[in-house]
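Q: I'm a student working through a structural biology exercise. My instructor gave each of us a protein and asked us to get a predicted structure, then write a short paragraph describing it. Mine is NDP-hexose 2,3-dehydratase. I'm not confident about reading structure output yet, so if you can add a plain explanation after the tokens, that would really help. Here is the sequence I was given:
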Amino acid sequence: MSELTETGPRDASWGRARSVRPGDAPFTGSTALRSRADATLPERFRRSAAAVGSGAKMSTEDFAGWLAERSAAHPFRVHRIAFDQLQGWSFEPVTGNLVHDSGRFFTVHGLRVRVTEGAHDWQQPIINQAEVGVLGILAKEFDGVLHFLMQAKMEPGNPRLVQLSPTVQATRSNYTKAHGGGSVKYLEYFTGRRPTRVLVDVLQSEHGAWFLHKANRNVIVETREDVPPDPDFCWLTLGQLGELLLKDHVVNMDSRTVLACAPHLLTEPQALSSDTELLSWITAEKAGHQVRAEPLPLAETEGWVRTESAVRRLDDRFFRVVAVRAEAANREVAGWTQPLFEPVATGVTAFLTGRFGGVPHLLVHARAEGGFLESVELGPTVQCVPDNYRGHAAPAAPRFLDLVLNAAPHSIRYSALHSEEGGRFLNAVSRHLVVDVDTAALSTPPEGYRWVTPGQLNWLARHSRYVNVQARSLLAALNSGAVRL
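A: Happy to help. First, here is the predicted structure for NDP-hexose 2,3-dehydratase. I'll explain a few features afterward.
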């Protein structure tokens, strides 16, 4: 195991180990000026993306066996249960809200959403989890190549249960031990108690359709220390993570959103819109949408009913609230029960892509969702569950859905099944697609849509509340080299 290879005068940006709150900026004690940006950082990520065989600590061929071995090393079981079998959770007598006895973790209550544009008005259950979680990946150079410490983590809602998660994936209730369980491994690298260098740190939203104003810190920090991996952790390069993003149900949502915030591998000096024009368009979209979200008692949420084992819509569309019992010997708590949101069917998350003047662009959609802190964020071209728009009295299907579903095989640049965050959502699976289209017919996209380059989208993802989690999920495949446009 080699020490970090220096690629420039970076010592001033390393924080000292100290006792601080998560997120406190490191102070080096020096008043000397330094560069506002590290020009070496994109090249270091490109070098890591190119390291798939040589330069990697673990061969990609060995990874599947390692993940299977870690899955078999611990007993993992998840069972659906009725609501009256929940332990520590209950429906409040007056409001009907689903709450934890401790007052921590999260609450499921109702929400009324009014979107002025289009006169949309609906009610639904929503997860209210006010605390900010940490999604952190620890990085280290080996022989001049950045590696990332990833965890084989069980989540009760995951298909196949065990997927590749960040080094730290924890809510505040988790890392402050509200559950009474064990400590979160490697947390000290993200709380200032160990000297690290910040490569990425941005507050990002989660699912605006299911969370109310939820945000997580998406963090990558680099260490120089020798960090022997726990048996459930392994070091992988960015290129290896890109290869694993080509496979179904391997890299979890929390890893994907953090990787989306890393520097993009390529920079495009030209685009259809300047960065200033793009920011102006997004600002106009945010200002032009009025989204009013009003909390409601769950018991008074119109169009929804509660049975012994589910809170569901009368027409069984969109999603249900259900309950599970989970057992995982390697988690901070070995067994627990909890509610989960379960979509009714598999979704579609897709970017249309095309070239203008030889430069690749993605078609983004300014989406209004009831749980966003601001009115809209940029989402993929298509983001929906197609089954919700089929059958009698179904709402109109989203724009471009037919084009994506009927895409010719040769036009599909990327296709993989990925699930959403398994700690809150059960089997929330979407097919992630990148589809080539003829840009001649779409050179002027409809209102609410805009062509942006992958580099521009990545630039926005390095700032808070511009790019939604579904778009970031696809952007991770671009940032890691899994998709070449």
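A: Here are two points you could use in your paragraph. The longest strand covers residues 133-142. Residues 1-11, 17-28 have pLDDT under 50 and may be disordered. It's a good idea to check both against the output above yourself.
Q: Great, thank you!
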